[in-house]
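Colleagues,

Please find the record for the two-part complex below.
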Amino acid sequence: MKEFECPDVGITVGRGVIDAFVAAFGPYKTRGEKVVSRHLGLASIGTDTDAIFPLRRFLNAMSELQEQFGGPFMRKVGSYIFDKAVFPPGIDTVEKSMELLHAAYYMNHSKDAEGRIGGYHWRVVKANEGRVVCDNPYPCAFDMGIIETVSRRFASSAKVTHEPGSCRHEGGGQCTYKVEW
Amino acid sequence: MHLQGGVVSASASFEERIRRCEEVLTKVAEGHLDQRLQLGEVEDALTGLEMGINFLIVDLRQTEQANREQQEALLSQQQELEAKLLTIEQQAAAIRELTTPVMEIWDDILVLPIVGVVDTRRSMDIMNNLLEKIVEAQAKCAIIDITGVEMVDTKTADYLLKVVRAASLLGTRCVLTGLSAAVAQTLVEIGADLTEVRTLRNLKAGLVDCLKFLKSGRAEH
């Protein structure tokens, strides 16, 4: 899928992803809340931790921020995902974390959206190395932030690089990240 | 958008990042609102400041854009109003010309029918039009027909006298026709002195009078 393209208005995103977006604003969280509320068409995002929001509108908010501050800001949002969003239990290695990214993705989005909004496809290449193919509608830099942060949580020396070829930021339908640790 | 600093590593010194902030702010002060500070991978005491600068630049840019759009809208409205005003002025001029027609109905005889209210502006137009036409046609007689004037006041009467006098100065004999009973009564009541003006009941009588005048003039020659 291309960046920020959501196929269906009915697809939702969970509160944890919104919280990661807001957390990236650092000391300016109020501003982050206002930006996302404006795009969601709400007076406030409230405090309900189980709340769900329209993915398409949330992607519009992300698109605005990427337009204003570039990829580094999206990378920052991605770096907060592991702490703010829902992840399956029992993740204790880089490999396991990469393997469960796809499951985590659908734990934070409408279950019935499976197959329609891409995901995170992990394959092991050799010991301590693998590839994650991301074909979801989130921006490239955002996924880079997620993969870097999650992998480094279990191996501080983990290195993530974008493989040459297709890139969603360049209009492609997917990005491939090489993960080494 | 221009990101200052490329990829900022954790090792970028405090001084270096402050220098980048200064650079960006200088460019913003020069009006380059597409500048942004590149955020580092690691959050520290300066990150908040860098983000704050970025947010302020975005706000400034949005405000500037909104102001520009508002200015453009105002300019467009102004141009629209000016065009409308011009049309109104052109229409007013056309109406003025239509309301003060001077016609040559016979050799050497002009007729100026006046209809409706005669205000100062219209008085001037009537005077100018008639005198211009007299000079142009070298007319010997002019009939001012006020059948269509329902009311006259001191100013109107005064103006009529002025028109007659001005026409006389150009060697043209003026006749006033179409005075209604009400108008005649008003003229008497307000004490308007029309003794030097030849007044006749209607346009037909005025035309007959002028033809007689012209005939007698030719006979004398």
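Helices of chain B lie at 14-29, 45-99, 120-137, 154-169, 181-190, 203-220.

Comments are welcome before we finalize the supplementary table.
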